[in-house]
Amino acid sequence: MSDENAVSAGWERLNSLLVRVGRPEIDEAPQGGRLVNPSVTRGSTVLFPDIATMQSVGRERYEHVAIYGAMGSTVQHQLERAVAAIEGGANTQVVSSGLAACTTALLVWTSAGGHCLIPDSCYGPTRRFADTMLRRFGVETEYYDPCAGEGALRALMRSNTQVVFAESPGSHTFEIQDVKMLARVAHDGGARLLLDNTWGFGVFSPFEHGVDVSIQALTKYAAGHSDAVLGAITVADDGLWRALRDAAIQLGQLAGPDECWLTLRGLRTMGVRLAHQSRTALQVARWLDARPEVFRVLHPALPDCPGHALWKRDFSGAGTVFGVSLTPAYTRAAMEAMVDSLALFGIGASWGGFESLVLPTTGGIVRSVSAPEQNDEGPSFRLNIGLEAAEDLIADLENGLGTLAAT
């Protein structure tokens, strides 16, 4: 299969599943019928007919049932079933944000005196949490090169290593990690493998590759419309689920019913949206890669991107967000003026929605082990490709790059 077809194939294969997951069956509804979309259920107090029933339901906290508003609503439970099915897991806990998914998972599976390995390319707020709260709780974090080989990773493992964290591809620099190898190293050392799988949601099967805990920012592809913030943590093991569910209840982690409903609705069209967006993203990435103003393009489907062979091996599709570095002939100020000149790319954080976005990344990438930039490259930015036509986006970028020549 060509890379052009490969970037969208996985999204297209999801469509039949996405239409059906997280919806009640017809025979579960009154009079044998139901609305196409589930209702939004808002509330804090759940009423029971008697004390015995309340006590019985209260013991079912590991089931996706209505117990109390702070333990999740009906629509949240429907979303949890949907995400678990897409990820290939058994149970999902929906939480308030993608960052909350990362931090909650780290809190569940680390403890005082423990050691945690995190890739140097991780999401910035995940690093900030590890360097502040985890440190205060007595957990030592060590960062590793996201492209490190098995021998180097084994050398970093300790007797008290509790978690190996992965993020594939890496934030801003888009390295694809060898997740199968990471799972082998983690498990041989008695640790859990946690993966931020946001970019690969639906096109990377975490549990088939040895992942213990898969983390999602549902804000991105699942919700898809830049109007909801929430996250998810998925596991395939019952023991891990009980530990996760207990921690979520103790931390008061949940998501609002409106955000859950919006995300369920976004899931229905995720495959169609991302099949188009991923094809357009590769087209734009290749166009940029051929431009003289561009030093390199970091898109996992491009052969020069770190981990490209692993992407071809492990992923059934590609995401919509990638990085661009200009040549060193251009200054940061020139790059920012170029970004300001774009008409179709909104300037803002996050990604995965229907609108194309651009975000300068020069000065915002923190590394302590692996160099984020080559010495001979210039300022960088990140693009998220939306639903606009490829030719329109390319024309906008061509105009923007034209401003560089004038500075």
From TrEMBL:
Domain of life: Bacteria
Gene3D superfamilies in UniProt: Aspartate Aminotransferase, domain 1, Type I PLP-dependent aspartate aminotransferase-like (Major domain)
Substrates-to-products reaction catalysed: L,L-cystathionine + H2O = L-homocysteine + pyruvate + NH4(+)
GO biological process terms on file: L-cysteine catabolic process to pyruvate; transsulfuration
Keyword flag Chloroplast: no
GO terms for MF: cysteine-S-conjugate beta-lyase activity; pyridoxal phosphate binding
Short name of one Pfam family: Cys_Met_Meta_PP
Keywords: Lyase, Pyridoxal phosphate
Cofactor dependence: pyridoxal 5'-phosphate
Keyword hit for Lyase: yes
Residues with PTM N6-(pyridoxal phosphate)lysine: K220
Family of this protein: Belongs to the trans-sulfuration enzymes family.
PANTHER family reported for this sequence: CYSTATHIONINE BETA-LYASE-RELATED
NCBIfam families documented for this protein: cysta_beta_ly_B
Protein name from the UniProt record: Cystathionine beta-lyase
Organism: Acetobacter nitrogenifigens DSM 23921 = NBRC 105050
